[in-house]
Amino acid sequence: MENLVVKNNIIINAPAVAVWGALINPEQTKKYMFGCKTVSDWKVGSPLLWSAMYEGKETVFVKGTIVDIVPQKLLKYTVIDPNATMADIPENYLNVTYELSGPDGEVNLTVTQDGFEGAADGEKRYQDVYNNGDGWNPILVQIKGVAESAL
């Protein structure tokens, strides 16, 4: 299988601190990640959970681990759907990387998702994320709105 990577970027007219807040503040993530809030202490090696209320109870929809973090510059973590039928083993986790660059006030946010090649259902998961070429763009547009409205 060839290298399967989904990469998208967007320019956000807000300071890096506002963009960063949109990425890690649980109240902000709920606005663009299908109602899911982030649960983490934001340290390398720590768990990262995406949870929301579902049928009256708190449910974890995505889980992973923080791989690298440089506030207002870089956030890299792994992801898996704990409710899927695939084995919860390192090979089945995908990688998500957010990179913030450019001048403050005009942040270029790039999201890269990879690791599909060796993962269970890798091709299907890639197609789901690739989303007919849209990739992360619908979520990036929402992150932009959250960050810019935080001003």
Strand content: 35-45%
Average pLDDT confidence is 96
Indicate the multimeric state: single chain
Listing every helix as H and every strand as E from the N terminus to the C terminus, the arrangement reads: EHHEEEEEEHH
Rg from alpha-carbon coordinates: 15 Å
Q: Which parts are unreliable, with pLDDT below 50 for 5 consecutive residues or more?
A: none
By DSSP (H or I, 4+ residues per run), the number of helices equals 4
Widest sheet, order of strands: 1-7-6-5-4-3-2
- Secondary structure category: alpha+beta
The biggest beta sheet reads: 7 strands, antiparallel
Q: Descriptors for this entry?
A:
151 residues, alpha+beta, seven-stranded antiparallel beta sheet, globular
Verbal overview:
With 151 residues, the chain is an alpha+beta fold. Helices cover 23% and strands 36% of the residues. It has four helices and seven strands. It has helices at 16-24, 26-29, 122-130, 137-149; strands spanning 6-12, 37-39, 47-54, 57-70, 74-79, 94-101, 107-114.
Write a compact overview of the structure shown.
The chain has 151 residues and is of the alpha+beta class. It has helices at residues 16-24, 26-29, 122-130, 137-149; strands spanning 6-12, 37-39, 47-54, 57-70, 74-79, 94-101, 107-114.
Topology:
Blueprint (H helix, E strand, L loop, with lengths): L5 E7 L3 H9 L1 H4 L7 E3 L7 E8 L2 E14 L3 E6 L14 E8 L5 E8 L7 H9 L6 H13 L2
Antiparallel strand pairs: 1-7, 2-3, 3-4, 4-5, 5-6, 6-7
Helix pairs in contact: 1-4
